[in-house]
Design goal:
Keywords: CBS domain. By secondary structure, the protein is α+β, with helices and mostly antiparallel strands. The protein has helices at residues 92-96, 168-173, 179-188, 191-200, 203-210, 215-223, 227-236, 239-246, 251-260, 263-272, 280-283, 297-304, 337-342, 366-375, 396-403, 408-414, 423-430, and strands at 7-8, 16-18, 24-34, 43-51, 55-60, 64-67, 71-74, 90-91, 100-103, 109-119, 125-134, 147-151, 155-156, 290-291, 316-320, 331-336, 380-384, 390-395. It has 17 helices and 18 strands. The longest helix has 10 residues, at 179-188. It is elongated.
Length: 438
């Protein structure tokens, strides 16, 4: 194996994994280790590699041929069976970072910020070092946050379960991930660890991640936050996602959180909760791109360039008379972004509206909405009430979320995955605790 003699594991998070032909197959999400009784260093079993579509699989360390700063290369053999963590296994990034341990010689409490693995002469890998942060207690002359790199046998206290464990190190390791990718990692964590990560995330980041998680995990995480924090996170969520989440809660809890939310954030959520789930009204977002009829093409394009805007909603703008907050004044029509790109920047959008495409009604069923989008090759459509006011817009991603089964990603991949037992992988994982190191 071509590798540096020591690899700090947090730095592996997110780096690309390649097969021998140079094709990228996924990215490193964690390292699986087996903790052992006493001071003996843990044995590294392998890597958790995320392959598309967001599926964690196990790559035995014995199949890794190269570890570099920006890539991992393996021998080409990869079992696509979904990784399932066993009781005897520990995830180095998800579970060891941020743990509170003690220095064996002084008994001082320190926090683990990284761990390092090194190869042995027998081609195994062991955790041999830990980078720890001293707290800089009162009366000490050293500066707060001092980092020490110590031998593995110089720390104690990793064998038990730590409640209230921090999550700063884990979050920092995956700081560059997009919300759906980080949500997938959080989805794989134990319930205790999910709660700790949620507590450490800021409101905006947690809101983005909650929108990507299954409803049962959204409810679980929200239930572990105090009411004021939960309301702040709901404020930061898109109104349709917040309404979907609140709709799953008991009525008294839902009303308490709505009361704690900012009034301007709670108002559209309350409106959405009045519609049945599988209708255009229940599916729509109340924040599409809306412009008045005297807006120019340049102004409309400036709105859809917003990097935080969902791509489906950026595909068109809705022209309405003031007020332009939903429910708006009279809805005049839709302008597709392709049309905006073909017109002079000074042209008024009122002259470009597509008036032949009828808007959706809020009571329209999910199946009818899907048929409408498919018939006219649209990625989003306006939802208008009987008085001609724009209420919101339904996007194709919301429709697909409700049409596809919850486990559709797994179902698709199971059809092509080799679910047979991998003898080499099984032997490595079964012998993790039984094998004695030289």
């Amino acid at each position: 194996m071509s590798a540096p003699t020591r690899v700090f594991i947090a730095r592996l998070a997110g780096i690309a994994v390649f097969d021998p032909a140079g094709d990228q197959v996924g990215r490193v999400r964690d390292v699986v280790v087996a903790l052992r009784i006493g001071p003996r260093p843990p044995r590294v079993l392998g890597l958790v590699v995320e392959v598309q579509p967001r599926r964690p699989v196990f790559l035995p360390i014995t199949r890794v041929t190269t570890i570099e700063a920006d890539q991992v290369v393996f021998n080409g053999r990869l079992n696509m069976r979904r990784f399932q963590q066993r009781e005897s296994e520990t995830l180095a990034i998800a579970e060891l970072l941020d743990r509170t341990v003690r220095l064996a010689d002084t008994g001082e409490q320190v926090a683990v910020v990284d761990v390092a693995m090194e190869p042995t002469r027998s081609r195994d890998w062991l955790l041999t070092k830990a980078a720890v942060r001293r707290g800089g207690g009162r009366g000490l002359r050293r500066r707060r946050g001092e980092i020490l790199v110590v031998d593995w046998d110089a720390i104690t206290g990793l064998s038990g379960v730590e409640y209230g464990q921090g999550a700063a190190g884990l979050i920092a390791a995956f700081e560059q991930l997009k919300a759906p990718d980080l949500a997938n990692i959080i989805h794989e964590l134990p319930e205790k660890r999910r709660a700790e990560v949620a507590a450490a995330l800021d409101d905006e980041r947690l809101a983005d991640i909650l929108e990507e998680l299954p409803e049962d995990e959204q409810i679980e995480i929200l239930g572990k936050l105090d009411s004021d924090r939960a309301a702040d996170v709901l404020d930061a969520m898109d109104p349709d996602d917040a309404a979907d989440l609140l709709g799953e809660l008991p009525a008294d809890q839902r009303e308490r959180l709505l009361t704690l939310m900012e009034p301007e954030e709670a108002a559209p959520v309350r409106r959405l909760l009045t519609y049945a789930d599988n209708t255009a009204g229940g599916l729509m977002t109340t924040d599409p791109v809306i412009v008045p009829p005297d807006a120019t093409v340049a102004e409309a394009l400036a709105h859809i360039r917003n990097p935080d805007l969902d791509p489906a909603l950026a595909a068109q703008v809705y022209v309405c008379r003031p007020p332009t907050d939903t429910p708006t004044g009279r809805y005049l029509g839709t302008v597709h972004f392709q049309r905006l790109l073909r017109e002079p920047p000074s042209e008024l959008v009122s002259g470009l509206v597509d008036t032949e495409l009828a808007p959706l009604r809020p009571a329209l069923s999910l199946e009818a909405v899907a048929t409408f989008l498919a018939t006219y090759n649209l990625v989003a459509a306006a939802v208008v009430d009987d008085a001609g006011h724009l209420l919101g817009a339904v996007s194709i991603d919301d429709v697909l979320d409700h049409l596809l089964p919850e486990d559709w990603r797994e179902t698709v991949l199971e059809a092509i995955a080799d679910e047979s037992t991998d003898p080499e992988e099984e032997a490595l994982r079964r012998s993790a605790h039984a094998r004695q190191e030289p």
